[in-house]
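Researcher: First entry.
Model:
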Amino acid sequence: MTKRIGILTSGGDCPGLNAVIRGAVKSSQQLGYECVGFLRGYEGLVDPVTYKLLNSKNTSGILNQGGTILGSTNKGRFVARSGVDNREELDIELLAGVQATVEQLNLQGLVCIGGDGSLAIAQQFHEFGIPVVGVPKTIDNDLSATAYTFGFDSAVACATDALDRLHTTAAAHDRVMVLEVMGRHAGWIALHSGIAGGADVILLPEIAWSFDGVCQKIIEREQQGKHFTLVVVAEGAHLPDGAMVTRERRSENRQVALGGIGNVVAAEIQTRLGRETRCVVLGHLQRGGPPTTFDRVLATQFGAFAVGLLHRREFGRMVCFNPPAIESVWITDAVSKLRTVEPNSSAVQAARALGISFGDGRCSRSPFETMTTTDHAAETKNEEPLANSQAALV
């Protein structure tokens, strides 16, 4: 039988998934493999097994398409995470079914494309003896083993575009505009889009803030003759009392759905200051649309590198980006720790130097004055500027 490689996309969709699929298919053909694409994520692996053969014809023209031609799901029988640290064990019979599918289709292994939850499933496959490699996918950019995940740059571009548009309408009506973006445990999207889009206040899960701190910045701008303010808040940012705003109660084996903190912040600002305040929730707009150039290149390299790992039988590994190189790490190391924003990182320091408030009441003037060269080097050790990463990658 012809040797084959299986590919699947799992969890929430994001720009760049099709670029990974295309990169994996093209590189597989160079090595003499056929490609099998399983439909609707892990669900397509067992009872009933649903897949289609992938080739140059049906993957042509998908490089710039959002979504995934294979479909995806974050529900069903394959759930390995119910929280950031809570692992759910998969049923043995389910794992045996996956193994049987791999053997019957003569697969060299599986390329599993997903975030921390999906990769936690891949890790259980590896422990069961199923040949698998992982490709990191999350717009939140919160996997510690890779400097960037594809989809993040596209999400930031979407949020930045929204801020550009909100800027003009806020200025025209002297309004406070609150933009809620995704980011459950990490505020990378809020931080990067806030800096790129000229936000005045950025609220992150990693930095404790208060309504007094937010209002203080708005009043400060008023005193400077600036009668509008842009506020960016990550959906996972905790309220001053430590609570998180959710859209629904947590269901069994699933993380609670976040959302709504933007409206809470907007309402409180309007109540406290009597200022006309509006809220915009980007939601799934951040997941849709074509990937940016950076994400296309990164995703393509991830797909090709993943096939190389399977060809060399380096199972249980996840592709990662360690600028400027594409490398790999053990999946278990990749999902064991989230990559969050360091409150004293160079990006945060730069934002404060620009006068951006994080709602914590800290002075926003000249934060670099007390930093030594050694301090700066230590803070930026694990943080690569996006522009430099793009240049190195392209």
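Researcher: Second entry.
Model:
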Amino acid sequence: MQEHTHRIGDLARLCNVTVRTIRYYESLGLLKSDFRSSGGQRYYSDADVIYLKRIAELKELDFTLAEIRTIIHMGKDDQSGEKRRLELLRQYRIKLSEALKRQGQLEKRIEDLAWHIEQLESTTEFQECPGLECKRCSFKERCRFRQL
């Protein structure tokens, strides 16, 4: 299979990023152009397309650019890829744990919002809340404003 070369603008379009993003990633050491024309024009390989898409994927999974850089730089001393594989596995487990925590917080928020909607839809004495209605209110066990 023949290797293609891509100019920076073509790479940006292929990977749905901006030219500025590519240059920024280069400045961070996440990506590098191995080829330059005599006029200084950057050229990228098909492998660079895959690398850039991998960076985008990791960002979508909440990896920071510093975390991505650490994994990429491990490649210099990791011919088999085993160190990077284990680091990715460790990081994926951390990200999953964080996502599950956020999911729990989001589910609690959804439950709270649904409760407030139900409460407001069922009250006829909105202006009296909290007040005399508290004694017979069906929401009194959960209400923060209940008056004894």
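Model: Note on the second entry: Strands lie at 5-7, 35-36, 42-45.
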